[in-house]
């Protein structure tokens, strides 16, 4: 039998039968299973709430109409809430992202919108702080640790217990011996990654479609990256303890310190005082109108909705038309800072993505969230759809308000139905490319180091 | 026990750590990260508080400069409160980034505290925030592991342990000496730094240090000292139980991952699955149902309000609402406010209770994971914990209720029932109202809220001493 094959088979046996592989693989799989349960739990609870919304909405409107019978539309229109929902994509269970932080249902009245957009969901802040143990966490955070555990002593252990010298003298080519060892580990790691991913697809019922394959490629590239990093460190030819220490330090740097510092950088370079400003302006913009003459407020309203000019609005006393025109001007006056806020949030997103280019851990997490539509951009899309819906509702009810239609003769449920935001297939090319570049770079460095520290070395003395 | 042996071993350990290069280079990195975290934390908190103060002044000025208005208009105009960060929040961010920062207080409605930093973040936040507390809680234990993993295991490997044991030193003396030496190093490297950063940051943010802040700083320092001692005892124990330094390192790194990643996450997710909290829609629906059960002020035939009407008419001895000397509309409004506020508070307390039981699952896990214990204590003492935020919510709701009540009183007495909406009252009426000031949770309450964590931390110290004694009594570990 070919000696190369023999060495390889021996290595496979040695490695696979060792405790590390079994313990590592089993514990990761168990945590993986828990993470599927957790992701599913979080998202399905949200979906349940979302499913309850149509019934809640129907009852609510019924009550409003009952109470309002006999009154004019303008009086009743103050009360109803209109619910909107942001259903989760099928991949959200894999990567919960920011879905637990941001509200997934929002209800709006026909009043000024800006004060209503930032209502938060009721959540336990400590749960948010601790974060989700979802499948993406297993891959992004825990998988690197498994890779470290599998590789840190690949060569050093044999050097430390003296086997390496024998390998060097017996193996025809030192290349093949090293390559064999690494290949066995790489294949095992990729195999476990595939297994966990397949389990995720089955457990979370991910559809077999493009986004799932995108998730898979992001995960695989990321796993490759960490394997190359591990190779780079073991190629230094230091002791097992050094390798383990160095790899854990790299992990802490990339997964904790770097993102922590980047977060400070993002918050400091793009602060969002506009959030409070928008709320203050809208409130003042609307309330000040009560103490101002009616006509200018109406003119502002007519500038956008000239079709209502024909309805008489008394200029010395309260009228529903004037009331909704005041609400509308609250929004008009805060529109600028609201736009600025959305703009700033997009700037934050772009800056973070640029930073992600320097750190594959960030790039991987961002790509997964993006594929799952659970990132900030997806939430902004939702907020914008809520704004659009708010306009549709206002425009549906304005004619009744201006015509003083009695409450009971309006179809209160006849407003244009809310269209939830569809799944957006955002490109993750740049994120994946960043991970690949870092992978390739680490590979090249690892090869150079191997050559220097393992291949060319001559046993000049008994080291 | 031989004190002179212990001292000699401790001195020796101390000297050997300072002699080698790796501990000092690691310390340099940690020092740099700590200073960076403190600096950016201080900058961020003072910038943030400045921003919140500006917003507060703007809202307060607008409130004071309102023209004469109808009191109910003022009640709807409402007030906005902006949450400021506590003086020690630069040290431990705690929950600060995940809780809301602004709340709109108006009549009839209890709004959520909105605009958390997490809501405006794209997820980078979720990797964990860089604060000095994070360095002390997560990275210093790793530092202790790296400087301590071979402390006993190394002696076994090179045979020195046997020689030492022959010289009348007991194994316990050696373990205590090692623990003392490493703890001494960690304390001298990190406690003065901690104390300095806490005092400096507090001075810069609050402009001075009062007794309360000083007490918190002292407690934090003592608790972190205990935490470092616990980790050191753990490291020495594992090192003493391991055959080789390599095994000790592997075991310790594994423990680190369990303590800092796996257990905290699983404990909290376990807590939220054990105690299911209602979502916002269910919460609001339940309140609405209770309110309409008790009395709906919008319903003219509501029995509760019919009774109120009869009682009021009887009290003033008149037979119609119009003949009342007070404004009946305001009376109804205040009654509705009292009912809805009471019901809201009941449901809110219930919700907070559920969250607390979720968090208690994590606190109980402090008995198996000392990181959870120090995390809770550190947040509590820094004023960035769950109770501080709950206190903010409750105080703002109380302020909202009282403000609305006063406006309803003005409405009741100064606005006539006839032609109600056409009347106005002088702005002086609400200019006299006090502004909102947040009363922080006192240290004693903070500590009692974290009682479980405090107990866990103290038990860990005892368990550490117990473990050292147990390990030292086993012959198998001496070989």
UniProtKB/TrEMBL annotation, chain A:
<feature type="transmembrane region" description="Helical">
    <location>
        <begin position="182"/>
        <end position="203"/>
    </location>
</feature>
<keyword id="KW-0812">Transmembrane</keyword>
<dbReference type="Pfam" id="PF12040">
    <property type="entry name" value="DUF3526"/>
</dbReference>
<feature type="transmembrane region" description="Helical">
    <location>
        <begin position="431"/>
        <end position="450"/>
    </location>
</feature>
<protein>
    <submittedName>
        <fullName>DUF3526 domain-containing protein</fullName>
    </submittedName>
</protein>
<feature type="transmembrane region" description="Helical">
    <location>
        <begin position="12"/>
        <end position="37"/>
    </location>
</feature>
<feature type="transmembrane region" description="Helical">
    <location>
        <begin position="135"/>
        <end position="155"/>
    </location>
</feature>
<feature type="transmembrane region" description="Helical">
    <location>
        <begin position="244"/>
        <end position="266"/>
    </location>
</feature>
<feature type="transmembrane region" description="Helical">
    <location>
        <begin position="215"/>
        <end position="237"/>
    </location>
</feature>
<keyword id="KW-1133">Transmembrane helix</keyword>
<keyword id="KW-0472">Membrane</keyword>
<dbReference type="InterPro" id="IPR021913">
    <property type="entry name" value="DUF3526"/>
</dbReference>
Automatic annotation (TrEMBL), chain B:
<dbReference type="Pfam" id="PF12679">
    <property type="entry name" value="ABC2_membrane_2"/>
</dbReference>
<feature type="transmembrane region" description="Helical">
    <location>
        <begin position="134"/>
        <end position="155"/>
    </location>
</feature>
<dbReference type="InterPro" id="IPR021913">
    <property type="entry name" value="DUF3526"/>
</dbReference>
<keyword id="KW-0472">Membrane</keyword>
<feature type="transmembrane region" description="Helical">
    <location>
        <begin position="175"/>
        <end position="201"/>
    </location>
</feature>
<keyword id="KW-1133">Transmembrane helix</keyword>
<dbReference type="GO" id="GO:0140359">
    <property type="term" value="F:ABC-type transporter activity"/>
</dbReference>
<feature type="transmembrane region" description="Helical">
    <location>
        <begin position="248"/>
        <end position="267"/>
    </location>
</feature>
<feature type="transmembrane region" description="Helical">
    <location>
        <begin position="213"/>
        <end position="236"/>
    </location>
</feature>
<dbReference type="GO" id="GO:0005886">
    <property type="term" value="C:plasma membrane"/>
</dbReference>
<dbReference type="Pfam" id="PF12040">
    <property type="entry name" value="DUF3526"/>
</dbReference>
<keyword id="KW-0812">Transmembrane</keyword>
<feature type="transmembrane region" description="Helical">
    <location>
        <begin position="447"/>
        <end position="471"/>
    </location>
</feature>
<feature type="transmembrane region" description="Helical">
    <location>
        <begin position="24"/>
        <end position="45"/>
    </location>
</feature>
<protein>
    <submittedName>
        <fullName>DUF3526 domain-containing protein</fullName>
    </submittedName>
</protein>
């Amino acid at each position: 039998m070919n000696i190369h094959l023999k060495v390889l088979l021996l290595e496979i046996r040695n490695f696979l039968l060792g405790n590390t592989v079994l313990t590592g693989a089993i514990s990761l799989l168990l945590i993986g299973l828990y993470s599927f349960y957790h992701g599913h739990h979080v998202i399905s609870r949200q979906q349940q709430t979302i499913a309850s919304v149509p019934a809640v909405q129907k009852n609510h409107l019924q009550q409003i109409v009952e109470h309002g019978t006999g009154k004019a539309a303008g009086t009743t229109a103050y009360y109803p809430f209109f619910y909107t929902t942001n259903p989760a994509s099928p991949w959200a269970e894999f990567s919960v992202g920011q879905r637990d932080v941001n509200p997934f249902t929002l209800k709006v009245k026909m009043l000024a919108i800006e004060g209503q957009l930032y209502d938060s969901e009721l959540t336990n802040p400590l749960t948010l702080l601790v974060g989700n143990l979802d499948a993406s966490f297993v891959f992004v955070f825990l998988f690197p640790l498994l890779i470290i555990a599998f590789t840190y002593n690949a060569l050093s252990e044999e050097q430390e217990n003296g086997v390496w010298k024998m390998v060097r003298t017996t193996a025809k080519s030192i290349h093949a011996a090293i390559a064999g060892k690494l290949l066995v580990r790489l294949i095992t790691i990729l195999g476990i990654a595939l297994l966990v991913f397949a389990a995720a697809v089955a457990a979370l019922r991910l559809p077999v479609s493009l986004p799932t394959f995108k998730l898979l490629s992001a995960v695989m590239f990321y796993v490759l990256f960490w394997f190359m990093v591990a190779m780079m460190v073991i190629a230094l030819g230091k002791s097992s303890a050094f390798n383990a220490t160095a790899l854990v330090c790299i992990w802490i740097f990339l997964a904790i310190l770097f993102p922590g510092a980047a977060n400070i950088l993002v918050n400091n370079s793009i602060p969002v005082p506009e959030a409070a400003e928008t709320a203050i302006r809208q409130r003042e913009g609307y309330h000040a109108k009560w103490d101002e003459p009616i006509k200018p407020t109406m003119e502002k309203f007519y500038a956008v909705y000239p079709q209502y000019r024909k309805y008489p609005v008394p200029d010395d006393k309260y009228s529903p038309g004037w009331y909704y025109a005041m609400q509308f001007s609250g929004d008009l006056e805060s529109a600028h800072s609201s736009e600025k806020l959305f703009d700033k949030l997009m700037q934050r997103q772009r800056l973070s993505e640029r930073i992600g280019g320097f750190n594959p851990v960030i790039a991987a997490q961002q790509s997964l969230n993006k594929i799952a539509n659970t990132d900030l951009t997806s939430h902004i899309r939702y907020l914008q759809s809520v704004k659009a819906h708010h306009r549709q509702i206002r425009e549906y009810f304005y004619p009744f308000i201006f015509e003083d239609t009695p409450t009971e003769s309006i179809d209160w449920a006849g407003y244009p139905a809310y269209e939830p935001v569809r799944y957006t297939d955002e490109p993750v090319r740049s994120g994946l490319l960043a991970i690949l570049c870092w992978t390739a770079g680490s590979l090249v460095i690892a090869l150079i180091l191997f050559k220097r520290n393992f291949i060319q070395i001559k046993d000049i003395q008994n080291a | 026990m031989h004190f002179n042996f212990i001292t000699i071993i401790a001195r020796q350990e101390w000297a050997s750590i300072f002699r080698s290069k790796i501990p000092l280079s690691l310390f340099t990195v940690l020092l740099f990260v700590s200073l960076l975290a403190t600096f950016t934390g201080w900058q961020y908190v003072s910038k943030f508080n400045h921003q919140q103060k500006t917003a507060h002044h703007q809202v307060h000025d607008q409130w004071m400069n309102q023209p004469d208005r109808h009191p109910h208009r003022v009640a709807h105009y409402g007030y906005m409160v902006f949450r400021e960060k506590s003086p020690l929040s630069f040290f431990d961010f705690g929950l600060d980034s995940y809780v809301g920062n602004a709340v709109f207080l108006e009549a009839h409605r209890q709004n959520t505290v909105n605009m958390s930093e997490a809501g405006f973040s794209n997820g980078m936040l979720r990797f964990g925030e860089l604060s000095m507390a994070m360095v002390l809680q997560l990275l210093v234990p790793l530092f202790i592991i790296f400087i301590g993993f071979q402390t006993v295991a190394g002696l076994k490997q090179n045979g020195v342990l046997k020689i030492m044991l022959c010289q009348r030193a007991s194994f316990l003396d050696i373990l205590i000496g090692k623990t003392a030496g490493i703890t001494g190093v960690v304390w001298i490297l990190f406690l003065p730094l901690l104390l300095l950063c806490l005092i400096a940051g507090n001075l810069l943010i609050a402009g001075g240090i009062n007794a309360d802040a000083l007490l918190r700083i002292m407690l934090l320092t003592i608790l972190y000292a205990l935490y470092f001692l616990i980790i050191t005892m753990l490291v020495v124990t594992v090192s003493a139980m391991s055959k080789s330094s390599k095994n000790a390192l592997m075991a310790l790194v594994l423990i680190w991952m369990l303590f800092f990643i796996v257990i905290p996450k699983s404990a909290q997710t376990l807590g939220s699955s054990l105690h299911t909290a209602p979502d916002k829609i269910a919460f609001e629906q339940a309140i609405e149902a209770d309110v309409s059960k008790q009395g709906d002020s919008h319903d003219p035939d509501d029995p509760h309000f019919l009774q109120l009407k009869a009682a009021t008419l009887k009290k003033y001895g008149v037979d119609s609402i119009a003949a009342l000397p007070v404004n009946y509309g305001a009376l109804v409004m205040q009654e509705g406010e009292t009912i809805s506020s009471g019901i809201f508070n009941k449901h809110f307390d219930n919700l907070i209770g559920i969250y607390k039981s979720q968090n208690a699952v994590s606190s109980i896990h402090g008995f198996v994971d000392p990181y959870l214990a120090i995390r809770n204590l550190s947040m509590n003492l820094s004023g960035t914990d769950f109770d501080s935020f709950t206190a903010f919510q409750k105080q703002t709701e109380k302020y909202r209720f009282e403000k609305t009540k006063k406006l309803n009183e003005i409405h009741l007495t100064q606005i006539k029932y006839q032609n109600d909406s056409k009347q106005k009252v002088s702005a002086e009426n609400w200019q006299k109202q006090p502004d909102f000031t947040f009363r922080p949770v006192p240290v004693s309450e903070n500590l009692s809220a974290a009682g479980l964590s405090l107990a866990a931390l103290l038990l860990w110290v005892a368990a550490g001493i117990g473990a050292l004694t147990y390990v030292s009594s086993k012959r198998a570990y001496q070989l």
